[in-house]
């Protein structure tokens, strides 16, 4: 391949049959103005953060695209020679494509440039657990998946390309014979430290339906809370969400019934407090996910990992991590008795 061929070929080129599918996944991390993008041979990793205490990660696997071409930069002949001298068995002369930042609102606006008729989330037509109790599985709003183009009302094509450092991210949208080309400015990446989750030292791992966590978080909002306390214990109450704010406090308890908590791994009692508004920022993911994995390590770092069904029968994951308040900070705004307390309990036996 000649040098002119190399300069004209983009480092990354992909085609998706549904811009809405990408839009709904990326909207899950729209709590921040910018997202850091890392393009790899396996897919596109987009991450966002808020004040170093919350991080959101959406991974667009290459299986979401009908075409996915990734051409990483090559090492120079000088670098390759030095590397060969260090390791005679190494023949890998590829480099990773450097990450970059992009305006997340601009990206989302581009993906819905042909218009987006807001559809209700996949759980909106089901019965409320507060109306009739937890009596088995809830019916879904139709048999189609959340990202089925029949539900989303779109059959257009989205083309993505990126040529390298300093170049814009090019997005070409085609629908009903109309083609729109958008070039989004890319920025130099920051180097934020990833919030570490000690997977080898988990204090709890709970898997449940995302819709039930969504309902619980919404129910707790009635007290205008500022903080959310998550309690997990091997004995009753097994899993409890408590909120506190200027209008009082409220609590939602979950029983350990396997029909409610698909996985319940808690070795000892743990109590951690987080900023409620940050947890609530994940509700876009809660609304379209089928399941959520709630993990917390011994330091109190919380991971909410949502499993989202996508078109074609596959799944994608959106992961959020949160840093807890220090124990003394959590005690500073402990709710008093004057505000009263509301309580709801999820129990399969009701």
Automatic annotation (TrEMBL):
Skewed-composition ranges (Acidic residues): 328-350
Pfam families linked to this entry: Rad1
UniProt entry tagged with the keyword NAD: no
UniProt keyword list: DNA damage, DNA repair, Nucleus
InterPro entries: DNA_clamp_sf, Rad1_Rec1_Rad17
GO biological process: DNA damage checkpoint signaling; DNA repair
Annotated segments matching region Disordered: 327-350
Protein's cellular compartments: Nucleus
Principal location: nucleus
Stored PANTHER family: CELL CYCLE CHECKPOINT PROTEIN RAD1 (PTHR10870:SF0)
Protein name: Rad1-domain-containing protein
